[in-house]
């Protein structure tokens, strides 16, 4: 597959118009999950993949998903933008309603682009022609797929995306948009005024031109961020969040150095930057008072910074804390 670099160029107006999606975008998660569904092997989504295939089969949907949905995600370089409307951020009902009403000419145009990238099965001919009934059937299938495959996994999706979003919001409100962009995951690199990333569809540059950018953290996105193909649509950037859970307190060189709970606090802050004290207590797990004391010790040692925001205390790794973790990195991380 051809890979390149994505460059998103900001102006001052764009920085003022950066927004963060309110939660998981159901149709972006749907599209990203279709790529994950065809994969094999182990990994953070392996349990979801097994359950999704079983549940789709039980619902009588597996064959339709394989023949009508998965071919739309057959090419890593392109899939139609109409499958991920901006209104999907308002929830699945709004998303499938907009999808069902997609103009026929737009469906024909974007399906023609897809056909230039991959061979489509004959069962998608009606959709490729922009047939209204085929578009509505696709919308109904998308709705059924999302409700069937995401239902039991929704808490994991919500938690991973929610924590990524919360970290961005805290960084934005405490330090501003420039620092927030600099704290995005390592797959993204912010060197003002350009945000860059490795990109599966070759080299590409997006000029925001004052329209701003919506950041969409995604559970099922993997390795590289994704943007809409049509530069004329409202700009969005979908990027992967960590699906890992912080390791439980235990043994090992880092635990021997710092103590098991303090080591777990550092690991938690590496996975979930900008945790509050109560979040640290819940994720370590330990009591609220204990989490506060351990954070204080780590702060005095230079491993952590703590910033008060209203009635919350926000904790983040320092460069020294991150370096200690890298030096003592284990398979748990």
Q: What is the string of helix and strand elements? A: EHEHHHHHHHHHEEEEEEHHEHHEEH
Number of domains: 3
Distance between the termini: 29 Å
Oligomer: single chain
The DSSP helix count reads 15
Biggest sheet, spatial arrangement of strands: 3-4-1-5
Largest sheet: 4 strands, mixed
Based on helices, strands and strand pairing, what is the structural class?
A: alpha/beta
Shape: globular
Strand content: 5-15%
The tally of beta strands, per DSSP, is 11
Mean pLDDT: 89
Helix content: 40-55%
The gyration radius over C-alpha positions equals: 22 Å
Low-pLDDT regions: none
Detailed description of the structure:
There is one protein chain. With 333 residues, the chain is an alpha/beta fold. It has 3 domains: 105 residues, no CATH class; 127 residues, no CATH class; 75 residues, Winged helix-like DNA-binding domain superfamily/Winged helix DNA-binding domain (Arc Repressor Mutant, subunit A, Orthogonal Bundle). Helix content is 48%, strand content 14%. It has 15 helices and 11 strands. Strands 3-4-1-5 form a 4-stranded mixed β-sheet. Strand 7 and strand 8 form a beta hairpin. Helix 3 packs across helix 8 and helix 5 packs antiparallel against helix 8. The mean pLDDT is 89.
